């Protein structure tokens, strides 16, 4: 879900909340510091995070970290909307009551950097040899950098997986290895009169963009090419036409209204042969409470397009340090502990995919995943690009523009004029967004 549209700019929010929120920030500071402005010994390290399996697992282990640094840890878990709102209030007021921030590097980091909310971690990650920054996979590591500064450390990663029905592809020679094969197999297995679909996937205008990105890259395209809009190129047009045609010919009715929440149950209930979405949701298809395909579901890497298999491999959640924190050293110690090799390996053994190459190369860390999924994740990670949406300040607006030709294709309309208009709109947007970055 996009939250960038809900994040107010520092400038506009400040006019609304400088008085009350500023007073609250000063109150928090005076209550937790010594006379010299330094945090007192009983000041907790405050962590704000999304309510996610990763953060739940970390919170259960915080006693271990408290003993390590001799300071109490306060960890607040919120929904995405609540987290965005809290960051707005606290950080626009320069509040010191946030130390470690769980952020989405691809959705909000650029805006947070523009607002001056994140501390530069470049020296810490590169000079701390024990942390082994180069051990992090290149794609998530690159996504952690904004304007030459490392502003976050990835802790949860995600790639697209091809979910398929093993019982239906046996006569087809196994799961499709190319997009061309996927189209042919999906068309062959579609029987709309009986309510069975060859392929299901996200089709909602903005929400589909992140999953479509892998189709775009695998056709040789990108959102931005040499600083300009890339969604009007022949490669992008081919990706729009392919994905739109796949859902139009083989997908369920109402696909343009489908997000993850609507698409996933169709596959889980045995009504589709193929489904491409985040590998993080794989357990939903193994859960007997929601899935009828748990005994027949298979997992495969993203199929190759004209430019090869080029899926995304992204940091879905990362850790940063508030620029206003008075406990930056302790905050860094927390990141070293939570994103260290030992913790990453422990959590990945429990089914939470991390970002460290050494952990991915250890077979023990993949033992909790089905073997074919583990291999698909490994290959997608090797091939992956570190972003699944345009890297801009106003991510929500960008996704809305880029998604318009997708809808046209799914509806069976001519994609070319819509893509031409969207390309012009996106080109204008990029100019304005870049001005925003520099303001």
Question: What can you tell me about this protein's structure?
Answer:
Belongs to the bacterial solute-binding protein 1 family. This is Sugar ABC transporter substrate-binding protein. The protein has 439 residues and is α/β, with parallel strands linked by helices. The protein folds into two domains: 4-158 and 314-383, Periplasmic binding protein-like II (D-Maltodextrin-Binding Protein, domain 2); 160-311 and 392-438, 3-Layer(aba) Sandwich (D-Maltodextrin-Binding Protein, domain 2), CATH 3.40.190. The protein is built from 18 helices and 13 strands. It has helices spanning 10-32, 53-59, 62-69, 80-92, 109-115, 122-127, 138-143, 166-169, 179-189, 209-218, 234-250, 260-268, 328-338, 341-349, 357-360, 371-383, 395-410, 415-438, and strands spanning 45-50, 73-78, 100-103, 145-146, 149-150, 153-158, 160-165, 197-200, 224-225, 228-229, 272-278, 297-300, 314-321. The protein has a five-stranded mixed beta sheet with strand order 2-1-3-13-6. The longest helix is centred in the last third of the chain and has 24 residues, at 415-438. The two termini are 27 Å apart. The relative contact order is 0.16.
